[in-house]
Recover the amino acids of this structure.
DNA sequence: CTACTCGTTGGAACCGGTTTCAAGACAGTT
DNA sequence: AACTGTCTTGAAACCGGTTCCAACGAGTAG
């Protein structure tokens, strides 16, 4: 009995064409050494059955998927989206397809590595803004899966990153040079499983203040997630202090925008009464005129993808280098001289 | 000889534990009916070898992946990102994982369906802002893969969409009611393979003009892709016409923003000299104060995901219904009365 | 006429899991 | 001691492809 169209297996095609499965496979993959009359019979059978090989079975047999997986926490974040855009661009000239996997929770992170750490669902891994748990690192290396880190650094893998300490310093120094001495900071909470760039930016902040002879005040250093309303609430607290800061360095643009919103709600004028610096230079930053430290988000994705393709091409492992991308202060309208 | 850690197969575990592969499989999947001393030996072997089952082989055997695939053209577009956000949210309570696949080119679209139309790489499909080619529709149905369309309508699948004709009408009527009679439109070019919502919004535009007794002028109706610079160039042309339009309806917010940029470059004041209405209400729209027709982007993703989960749960196919989400005019600062 | 080569071809092993099914071990009954 | 039922267990079939290798037929050289 013939199978339903669209459900045929290679054996069905072989049966209908009166040949063996090996021959069908040869035709499918364009191997030479098939008599043209035989090939025609096979092609006819394939079309009659509306047959398409199972890519899953094919991958299992070939031990190859022609897929690259990108693992990101909260991949709908503006900065993550930019990175993905770069990855898409970096892979576009290759014959690899990209599959994007969100790992917003610890549970999903576990699942993600369950799917990918054996290398059977993807030939290469791009891990963005996260560090793989140590057991996974070992498994990935044992299985020999090419893996590149973006916006995270690990001694076992090639990484694309920025110098977060320097970034925090650039932002803070800008404020100090404008005359600010009451400079607050809003950072991310210590991450459960993510790469701790926030700590480094905080260190840069501290270093810049130290260089200017300004003491770090505990009540000026706050932490909160990137969720808009959280950042807004924290900023509101900060701006309600008796001795209100005259400037805020937010460790990400999304948080900086929360600060701007809080300021507007409190009737505090920016930049006349309050200066705000962000980090990342996401698209919205230009629209709201946010002064920020630009990191090349798109470029980081593109470069990571390129690096991965190189590792995939020559099968020898590229040594675990760490490529730092340049940072740049972009001065827009949210920073100004300290109020008199 | 023992395999490298992280490369072990189930047979290796079985051999080390001195049991059969069936027993290892039972332990892995938590089946009852394994003597606890045996189970312990198996667990010990699994840990010693740092074993993890191949999810690919598992899927092949089980004919099930616990993965939902979302296929989107240009998934880094702001509106697409919002939809993905909704999808993530809609799936978060389930045990399905999401894999996102970009299909920006016709080639990638073909690849995408090659991977997914047999249902072996994913248990369910969310096709966003695209129509599957007709042969794929047949294959998907033959293979019985649950599939839900978002922002596209097809008689064979459940769909989540908006009434684009009504949307175009709402936007245009708003302009007409402000007194505008020279109303231009910037739409998308007829899509190669995408869902043609732009045509419907244009139809709504025409209908609203007709209702007001205004004739449609060919030179006021333009087409261009969503790329920022393309929209800007088209807008610049439009705003340089001898008889310049006093209002522009852009069929998407990204294009509307291009219009705003062109106007600023030409020194045309918005809304004093030019009114602009967009469509979608992406996040940036609020920041630039764009008047627009809001469609529930996040909600469309969430609802699509929910629908798909229902189809996946009770295996009977849900009838191909079309669920329309509500549209809403959001008046901000880019529209005003016609200049005297 | 035999032997050897070359071009085609299909059977079977393999990729790495799950599951059926029959059989072995063991305790409880009669 | 023989019989029955329950609990464990592993060999083998299966998921759907790819590919090694042996075999087969035709053509040609010796």
């Amino acid at each position: 009995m013939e199978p339903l169209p669209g459900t045929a297996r290679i054996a069905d095609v072989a049966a209908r064409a009166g040949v063996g499965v090996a021959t069908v496979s040869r035709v499918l993959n364009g191997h030479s050494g098939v008599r043209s009359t035989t090939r025609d019979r096979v092609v006819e059978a394939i079309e009659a059955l509306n047959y398409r090989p199972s890519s899953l079975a094919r991958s299992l047999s070939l031990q190859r998927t022609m897929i690259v997986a990108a693992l990101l926490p909260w991949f709908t974040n503006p900065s993550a989206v930019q990175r993905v855009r770069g990855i898409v661009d970096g892979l576009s000239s290759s014959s690899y397809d990209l599959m994007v996997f969100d790992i917003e929770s610890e549970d999903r992170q576990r699942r993600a590595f369950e799917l990918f750490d054996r290398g059977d669902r993807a030939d290469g891994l791009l891990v963005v803004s996260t560090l793989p748990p140590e057991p996974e690192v070992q498994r990935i290396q044992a299985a020999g899966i090419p893996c590149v880190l973006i916006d995270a650094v690990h001694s076992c893998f090639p990484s694309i990153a920025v110098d977060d300490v320097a970034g925090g310093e650039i932002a803070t120094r800008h404020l100090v040079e404008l005359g600010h001495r009451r400079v607050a900071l809003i950072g991310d909470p210590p991450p459960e499983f993510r790469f701790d760039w926030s700590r480094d930016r905080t260190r840069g902040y501290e270093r810049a203040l130290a260089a200017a002879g300004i003491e770090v005040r505990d009540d000026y250093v706050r932490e909160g997630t990137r969720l808009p309303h959280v950042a807004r609430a924290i900023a509101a607290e900060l701006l309600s202090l008796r001795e209100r800061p005259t400037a805020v360095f937010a460790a990400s643009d999304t948080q900086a925008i929360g600060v701007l919103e809080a300021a507007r709600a409190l009737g505090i004028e920016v930049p006349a009464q309050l200066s705000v610096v962000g980090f990342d230079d996401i698209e919205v930053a230009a629209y709201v005129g946010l002064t920020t430290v630009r990191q090349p988000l798109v470029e980081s994705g593109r470069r990571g993808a390129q690096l991965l393709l190189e590792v995939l091409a020559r099968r020898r492992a590229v040594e675990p280098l760490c490529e730092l991308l340049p940072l740049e202060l972009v001065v827009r309208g949210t920073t100004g001289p300290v109020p008199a």
Summary: The radius of gyration of chain A is 26 Å. Chain A touches chain B through 46 residues (CB under 8 Å). Residues 273 and 340 of chain A are 9 Å apart (CA to CA). Residues 9-11, 21-22, 25-26, 28-29, 53-62 of chain A lie near DNA strand D (CB under 10 Å from a C1').
